Amino acid sequence: MIIGHRGASGYAPENTMAAIKKAINMSCNGLELDVQLTKDQKVIVHHDWNVDRTTNGKGEIKDLTLDDIRKLDAGKWYSDEFIGEKVPTLEEVLLEVPENLFLNIEIKSKADDNRGIEKEVIELLNKYNRLENTVLSSFNHLCLERIRKINPEIKIGILFEAYLLDLFDYIKKFKAYSIHPCNYYVSKELIDKAKDNNMKVFCWTVNDKSRAIELSEMGVDGIITNYPDLLKK
Ligand code: G3P
Ligand code: CA
Questions:
Q1: Among the listed residues 2, 205, 204, 6, the one whose alpha carbon sits nearest the alpha carbon of residue 87
Q2: Which atom of ligand 1 sits closest to the CA of residue 224?
Q3: Quick one: pLDDT at residue 162?
Q4: CB 97 within 8 A of CB 7
Q5: By the 8 A CB rule, do 90 and 69 touch?
Q6: Fewer Cβ close by (within 10 Å): the C or N end of the chain?
Q7: What spacing in Å lies between the alpha carbon of 108 and ligand 2's midpoint?
Q8: What's one GO BP annotation on this UniProt entry (predicted)?
Q9: Would you call 163 helix, strand, or coil by DSSP?
Q10: Best of 1, 32, 186 to mutate for ligand 1, by most ligand atoms within 8 A of CB?
């Protein structure tokens, strides 16, 4: 599977409707999107903890309301062509994305944040009948534990930044659907172990064609990329 990272973020401002629509038009198999909770508990699609880099505003997402965030421009930082793009809500994205497109929703939540983003995300997926075709991933494994408690069936993806020697022992408790390693740590051995444990492997972020071919030959199930069209070829 070719999965657009933050949409087709090589061609449009990450995590905006413009990037999402481009990824859909590039016929990718799935979309990877980051989600966070605003001050007023709305689920928005956004990567950084603050709005400083990718909008014309300033401040932490957790300190801003959806109304505050909706006033910001999320396109100009990338190029003038995208002036007017907004930070979308997860709900808007679910309304736009065709049902057959696989979603990898990465929950960005700090370890001490107990406001319940997991519940909000699952409720939205349920409302739009997207639970089947979605994997919820996070670097915050407390968040994944909470997801598993809320829903014993939902697909969980374990994100990790460094390779853990006892990875498969450690992740047993999550009953995960997939592992999501940085592509540098992917080897044939890791993929075979994942298959033995009945888990899929989705690796990030691969923008180089020859590395994509190597990973594909090793047997990864999905590649997360900023350039879905290049990797499709
Ligand atoms: O989900 C894979 C990848 O997106 C994780 O890293 O920083 O791009 O969210 P980041
Ligand atoms: Ca991400």
A1: 6
A2: 2
A3: 79
A4: no
A5: no
A6: C
A7: 8
A8: lipid metabolic process
A9: coil
A10: 32
Q: How far is the CA of 41 from the centre of ligand 1 (A)?
A: 22
Residue to probe by mutation, ligand 1, list 33, 46, 205, most atoms within 8 Å of CB: 205
Which segments of the chain have a pLDDT < 70?
none
Q: Which amino acid is at 43?
A: V
Supply the mean pLDDT for the chain.
96
CB 14 within 8 A of CB 6: yes
Strand (E) or helix (H) holding 188: helix 188-196
**ipTM of predicted complex:** 0.99
Query: Domain boundaries in the chain?
Result: 2-48+89-225
Alpha carbons 52 and 178: distance in angstroms, whole number: 32
Q: How far does residue 47's CA lie from ligand 2's centre (Å)? A: 7
- Paired tokens of 11: 């061609």
**pTM, rounded to two decimals:** 0.97
Question: What is the tens place of the pLDDT at every residue in 174-216?
Answer: 999 999 999 999 999 999 999 999 999 999 999 999 999 999 9
The superfamily (CATH) of domain 2-48+89-225 is Phosphatidylinositol (PI) phosphodiesterase (3.20.20.190)
- Please identify which residue in the block is written with the tokens 């999550």: 174
